[in-house]
Write a structure and sequence with these properties.
- The chain is 35% helix and 27% strand.
- The protein has 259 residues and is of the alpha+beta class.
- A hairpin with a 2-residue loop joins strand 8 and strand 9.
- The termini are far apart.
């Protein structure tokens, strides 16, 4: 493992631990809530505070790196040259507001377009899922075993609400019918974790932002899983994606059902 990965891993985990404690301590506080694009696309003062803290920390420790953050406190990223950080301060903001759980703090580090470090922190359960390229995936430093390569009819499928609600995605529901059942958490990061753990065989979702998928991509690569767009093309980390995270067998079946 490169030395810079080891030292950076330690620093990132310290940031996540410190920031996570603040989020948890303020989970019952009165939030300032703003609507971004739609009534269910919200941002809170806590989202903004977390991103500002992470951006400040990254700029102080790694001043030459660039940052793409959900709330806009990073940089304008038009290419993947050099070191690029992806920051999702609270993935699952609606859950954070309405449930006080099922949300995650997410970070990913890419070197020249290659994912090298990823972090998905389930704040309320205090579970930090992390990956370093070539070293697998762990939860609270306990290694996660590569999941069984299960077929679609051997496990459950996760998706996002758009696929269930919007008529233009009616044709996609046949994938759910081919599985043992459907599950929704409402956090792309936590859904990615479920695939990594083998709790579900696939996660399919539409219109995900780069920071929604950047951390999970390394998890999939490290555990022998598949990560593509609906058209079987690689993910585009500079644009929105319709994504499939899945076992190899389930992925093959899903691609066949979609096309």
């Amino acid at each position: 493992m490169p030395e810079n990965f080891t030292s950076r891993d330690k620093i990132i985990k310290e940031w996540i631990n410190d920031i996570g404690r603040v989020v948890l301590a303020n989970i019952d506080s009165q939030l300032e809530i703003e609507q971004k694009t739609t009534p269910n696309d919200l941002v809170t003062n806590m989202d903004k505070w977390v991103e500002k803290e992470l951006v400040k920390n990254i700029r102080t420790a790694f001043p030459s790196d660039r940052i793409l953050g959900e709330e806009g406190f990073g940089d304008t990223i038009e290419d993947m040259r050099g070191t690029v950080w992806f920051v999702d301060p609270i993935d699952g903001t609606l859950n954070f507001i309405l449930q006080n759980e099922n949300f995650a703090l997410m970070l990913a580090v890419y070197e020249d377009g290659i994912p090298v470090q990823s972090y998905i922190y389930d704040v309320t359960l205090d579970r930090l899922y992390s990956a370093i390229k070539g070293k697998g995936v762990s939860c609270n430093d306990q290694q996660i075993v590569e999941p069984h390569d299960a077929a679609l009819n051997e496990g459950m499928l996760a998706t996002n609400s758009s696929i269930l609600i919007e008529e233009k995605y009616d044709h996609i529901r046949k994938i759910a019918k081919a599985s043992l059942g459907l599950r929704l958490i409402g956090s792309a990061g936590l859904e990615s974790v479920e695939v990594a753990k083998g709790s579900i065989v696939a996660y399919i979702a539409t219109n995900l932002k780069p920071w929604d998928v950047a951390p999970g991509l390394l998890f999939m690569e490290e555990l022998g899983l598949k990560a593509t767009q609906f058209n079987n093309e690689p993910l585009n980390l500079l644009d929105n994606n319709n994504i499939i995270f899945a076992t190899k067998k389930a992925h093959k079946e899903i691609i066949k059902l979609l096309n």
